[in-house]
Amino acid sequence: MKKLTKVTSIVLATAMTVACLAGCGGNTSSADTFKIGGIGPITGGAAVYGQAVMNGAQIAVDEINAAGGINGHKIEYKFEDDEHDAEKSVNAYNSLMDWKMQILMGTVTSGPCIAVVDKTNADHVFQLTPSGTAPEAIAHDNAFRVCFSDPNQGTASAKYIGEHGLAKKVGIIYDSSDSYSSGITENFKNEAANQGIEVVSSEAFTADTKSDFSTHLQAAVDGGAELIFLPFYYSEASLVLTQAAQKDINVKFFGCDGLDGILALDGFDKSLAEGVMLLTPFSATSDDPQTKAFVDKYQEKYNEVPNQFAADAYDAIYIIKMAAEKANITPSMTNEEICNALMSAMTSIKYTGITGSDISWGADGEPNKAPIVVEIVNGEYSILK
Amino acid sequence: MSKFVDSIKSNKKLQSNLITFGMVIILYVICQSLAAAGILSNSMKGLLIQFCYYIIMAVSLNLTVGILGELSLGHAGFMCIGAYTYGIFAKVLSSGNLSRTAILLISLVLAAIIAAFFGFLIGIPVLRLKGDYLAIVTLAFGEIIKNVTGSLYIAKDSHGLHFSLNGTSDMVLDADNLVIIDGPKGITGLTSGVSFTLGTILVIITLIVVLNLINSRTGRAVMAIRDNRIAAEATGINVTKYKMLAFTISASLAGVAGVLYAGSLSTLTSTSKNFGYNMSIMILVYVVLGGIGSIRGSVIATVILVLLPEKLRFVNSYRMLIYAIVLIAMMILNWSPSARAWREKMINKIKSGKKVKEAK
Fold it and tell me: Is the residue at B15 inside a domain?
């Protein structure tokens, strides 16, 4: 008797394991909707970016579905969390594949994107990242991006400063523990040499030491910098600007798209940001009717001003729609057929949205669009020519 | 044959060890046959290799925490060393004509040796301390390893290897260079995908090493130090030697887990998410839930806790919240004295109920 119970319990346990392992495999896919998946951090330290992308894309999906869908087919949209970690991102991708995803809009952050693009390439899934800026994030043919790449931003910033004669001596403060920041810095330095700009100081901080910037600022001042380049995110930049004001440092500041959002930061004295210049593809206060409509909808639904990430994601969904209509794909096609059709369509479309106009793509997946430099004047962005 | 069976029956420890091995092998067979039949979901397929390296991490940490009795909070640092060993080695040799399997096998051995070396080095100052002090110092070492690997630049050209902490532009390189570690961007362009079979073999090797160590003369000496250091010293046990031995073996196995981790992804970065103290504490959670000192418990707890957040994906943004609540509930049900007493009572009730039935 005792033996029998033992045997039964083992058999039951085995059956349970099997059920648990295989249970999630089955998923009925209806043949008349496109399944677009998204991946990004919606929990953890980088959750702000993931949530912005999730929400921005949701607005685009709702609009498209209300207007009849892509080629008459509705979109099903599902967003999975990756906690800004490569391993979790691949897990999220795998579970989206169980859901029978056909097109991937993601991932939001660069590091995880590099891991996932390897998988989408192996599985022949079309991938469009709204905000993965590292060059390797779109290393394969099947991947494209909406935003500027790190090298692109570093080079464009140095070019702008050089061509407009903003400064001859530049100090750099950057986050050496962040690939976005160090990637831009690397390329900025290379282009600065071509533009005849002298980099007088290049001081690093890390994610663990981002509260006191006085030594970084002092190094730039001691070197005689006329402009300080800030290639990192707005929360750290707000501290830099505050500390610079306390020390009466009177130089120009120039940042990249990470600085977008500084005006919406709680507890930050906006007047300190006056005169700061930044390279950004999106301005929430723009007069453009398309942008206005998006910002209003976003504020109504999520009760906050959308940032650049939300705008990139919104555009990403419309770019997928445009390419899908051009390639004339249907949901009944295999992932490989969809991927090949979209890949060739991407290189022949010209998209105008809220993060740029007449954007076109090369086969390498990089967008061709003009960088926009804005200056903060009276607490608002004003576009510099 | 019957003699062999008898010897197993009379040896409780051997029996228990065989159950642990049997469990791993049965799970492996089930997963492989399901995969062959094509019913295994994509997400499960991706998780299989993660089970392997987290099990190795948990079992090796259990050696330090459970058997040696010292709290280590920097275990992920050794995993980081193993992972970067593989990353650098694979990247340097990627242009050569060694097969991927050969690279993997050589890196496994290399990673085990290098992680053991670092374990030994770190062990010299660390093992002079005990309790909370030791825990804090291991935490610091783990963070140092993570931060150094996260800001290191290594490149290769015809002159050999170049190192820098400031960026690739600081190095004088040929035009034909290969950047191996690109600072915080880490190593990219690795070939991803380690086979589940290799992972399982490494899990079994880890179990053999750890279980044999525990049941050997050395293991008894280590446990004697844990239970009463003064008494152990008085009986002539060389405390430093045995502590160092257990700590080094534990580090070395974590290095092996690191190779599996890096080998399963196409990119390797050193962030607080994967090699920081968050990860070290997560591994400690696996060990504590499975029972400190119980190797089989570590294996089971690891599988459950790696699987749980993936199975909770349907609750979307509440996932990590629910995960934490489930974790608290599991800890209480498993380890609170009153819950254990209640469990015992229920088991006795079921047993006695059966006996009554049988008597009838």
Answer: no
